């Protein structure tokens, strides 16, 4: 008996050299992406991000993963959409790391749960509650999802320079937009402890809900990569207001942060760690 495997053969992605092979989900290879990569959830946000760059090319577009590479303020930079949620974001981190990315910044939207945060504000994540399952496949629940301190500082410096209102603090990353974020489901369904859950996070000082940051930060920490997150507030969970607004603020802030980090890295290469600390005001 003969078997026709021609279709299979054309879609095999080799695993002998995972660094340089085309990656199975993202369809990127080494050289396609810069060291600094922005990670929006929504593929449609890729174009909104590249709008503020000097130039760019779309280098891959497969499933939820759209990747573009270009320059911002003369700094090489890439963007890859992750799709919604931790499982697909973890795949993006895995495959981007394999092709040479070392700095990952999520550029997202979120729901804010504190009174002082308004729709359109930016929230820069310093650490994230791991209310998702993916990062638990990698490491025990007690392991912290922390943002890289230089990435947080660069995002805050960028938002300052651009004149945007921002808050720095803790994010809760969930596996569910509805039940996981204490929203009503279909026909008014309310998950067990929904009200208590949002109140507990609020009282513990958590600023916002979104769905990817904790997995990205956890994997980055395990792999020795730098990561952070900046999200625009779409939902104000204290007033009930919801508006899709301010996407370009997070895009510009994260792009500028990548160029500030590259500048810091160059200075460290030239003058040692003291210069880096001086730039951060430490
Ligand atoms: O706007 P993005 O980056 O997709 O982020 C947020 O929006 C989606 C839910 O609507 C989730 O991915 C959440 O994290
Ligand atoms: O409330 C919100 C808004 C955007 N994304 C989320 O995950 N939650």
UniProtKB/TrEMBL annotation:
Ranges of compositional bias, category Polar residues: 1-13
Q: Which subcellular locations apply to this protein?
A: Cytoplasm
Q: What Pfam families does the database record attribute to this sequence?
A: PNP_UDP_1
Q: Which residues does UniProt assign to the signal peptide?
A: none
Q: Which UniProt keywords apply?
A: Cytoplasm, Glycosyltransferase, Transferase
UniProt-recorded Gene Ontology molecular function terms: uridine phosphorylase activity
Q: Does the keyword rRNA processing apply?
A: no
Q: Name one GO biological process term.
A: nucleoside catabolic process
Pathway, per Swiss-Prot/TrEMBL? Pyrimidine metabolism; UMP biosynthesis via salvage pathway; uracil from uridine (phosphorylase route): step 1/1
Swiss-Prot/TrEMBL catalytic activity: uridine + phosphate = alpha-D-ribose 1-phosphate + uracil
Q: Which parts of this chain are annotated as the region Disordered?
A: 1-24
GO cellular component terms?
A: cytosol
Q: What is its EC number?
A: 2.4.2.3
> What region holds the Nucleoside phosphorylase domain?
37-258
What InterPro entries does the annotation carry?
Nucleoside_phosphorylase_CS, Nucleoside_phosphorylase_d, Nucleoside_phosphorylase_sf, Uridine_phosphorylase
What domain of life does the UniProt record list for this protein's source?
Archaea
Give the EC class as a word.
transferase
The record's comment on protein family reads: Belongs to the PNP/UDP phosphorylase family.
Q: Which PANTHER family match?
A: URIDINE PHOSPHORYLASE (PTHR43691:SF13)
- Alphabetized NCBIfam families for the sequence: Uridine-psphlse (TIGR01718)
Protein name listed in UniProt: Uridine phosphorylase
Q: Which organism is it from?
A: Halovenus aranensis
């Amino acid at each position: 008996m003969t078997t026709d495997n021609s279709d299979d053969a054309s879609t095999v992605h080799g695993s002998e050299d995972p660094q340089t092979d085309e990656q199975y989900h993202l369809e990127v290879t080494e050289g396609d992406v810069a060291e600094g990569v922005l990670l929006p959830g929504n593929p449609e946000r890729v174009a909104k991000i590249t709008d503020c760059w000097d130039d760019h090319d779309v280098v891959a577009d497969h499933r939820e993963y759209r990747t573009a590479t270009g320059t911002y303020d003369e700094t090489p930079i890439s963007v890859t959409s992750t799709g919604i949620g931790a499982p697909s974001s973890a795949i993006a981190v895995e495959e981007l790391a394999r092709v040479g990315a070392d700095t990952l910044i999520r550029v997202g939207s979120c729901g804010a749960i504190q009174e002082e945060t308004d729709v359109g504000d930016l929230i820069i994540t310093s650490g994230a509650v791991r209310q998702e399952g993916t990062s638990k496949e990698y490491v025990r629940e007690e392991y912290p999802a922390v943002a890289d301190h230089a990435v947080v500082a660069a995002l805050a410096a960028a938002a300052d320079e651009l004149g945007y209102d921002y808050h720095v603090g803790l994010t809760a990353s969930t596996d569910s937009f509805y039940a996981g974020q204490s929203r009503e489901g279909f026909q008014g369904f309310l998950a067990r402890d929904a009200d208590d859950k949002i109140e507990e996070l609020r009282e513990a000082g958590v600023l916002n809900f979104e769905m990817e940051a904790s997995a990205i930060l956890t994997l980055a920490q395990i792999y020795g990569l730098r990561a952070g997150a900046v999200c625009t507030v779409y939902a104000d969970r204290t007033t009930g207001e919801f508006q899709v607004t301010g996407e370009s603020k997070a895009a510009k802030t994260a792009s500028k942060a990548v160029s500030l980090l590259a500048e810091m890295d160059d200075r460290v290469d030239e003058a040692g760690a003291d210069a880096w600390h001086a730039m951060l005001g430490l």
